[in-house]
Specification:
The structure is a single chain. By secondary structure, this protein is mostly helical. It has one domain. It is built from eight helices and no strands. It is elongated. The relative contact order is 0.09.
């Protein structure tokens, strides 16, 4: 009831203080700029993941199996191209050089998005193969070093699988989790003040 009037009154008081005291005005502008920058990074991080998650739900609900497989193959080809950008040190350096002018977090956001979009892709493919989609998340959490997330949560493996699912999960671990962890270590190992590397 009093939330909006209190917000308006508080904003008016802060704006008045900013006019009288320039340091307050600069602090408020800095805070708002930081807030907007954080919001943009949050959208860049979660937007692609939400898009591909919505795509997976739409595929399962609306498309016949033949079209699901066709979209999944196209998605797999695009994902392969995205993973190739973090698969080797040379490609990571090239990606780092290209994304660094956007911001220091850009390479990490890219790698995070690739990891989670790949998880959605492999979960969808596992769902189409077996009818269950928690297996990929379980295996992703099982690979987090030192935390023992699945043991801590007392979460047993959600699916006993046969056939193509085992090799599919191995492919997920080798082709996605390995390059993503290596990329995170690569970016974390760079000193913050280091300029973008020169490509030769």
């Amino acid at each position: 009831m009093f939330g909006y009037p209190a917000f308006v009154a508080g904003s008016f008081c802060i704006a008045s203080l900013g006019i009288v005291f320039p340091a307050v005005g600069r602090a408020v502008q800095g805070f708002l700029a930081l807030w907007m920058w954080a919001a943009l990074w949050m959208m860049a991080t979660t937007g692609p993941i939400a898009l591909f998650l919505a795509l997976s739900h739409w595929m399962l609900d609306q498309l016949p199996l033949a079209l699901q497989i066709a979209v999944l193959l196209l998605w797999g080809a695009l994902l392969t191209a995205a993973i190739s950008l973090i698969a080797t040190e040379t490609s990571r350096t090239r990606l780092y050089t290209a994304l660094r002018p956007i911001g220091a977090l850009a390479p990490l956001v890219y790698t995070f998005n690739v990891l989670w979009i790949a998880m959605v892709f492999f979960a969808l493919a596992t769902c189409l193969l077996t009818g269950a989609d928690l297996t990929v998340l379980w295996h992703l959490l099982d690979e987090v070093p030192l935390l023992s997330i699945n043991k801590t949560l007392h979460w047993n493996e959600p699916l006993e699988y046969r056939g193509w699912v085992g090799p599919f999960l191995l492919l997920f671990k080798v082709a996605v989790i390995g390059p993503a962890i290596t990329a995170f270590a690569f970016y974390a190992g760079r000193p913050p003040a280091e300029p973008a590397p020169e490509m030769t």
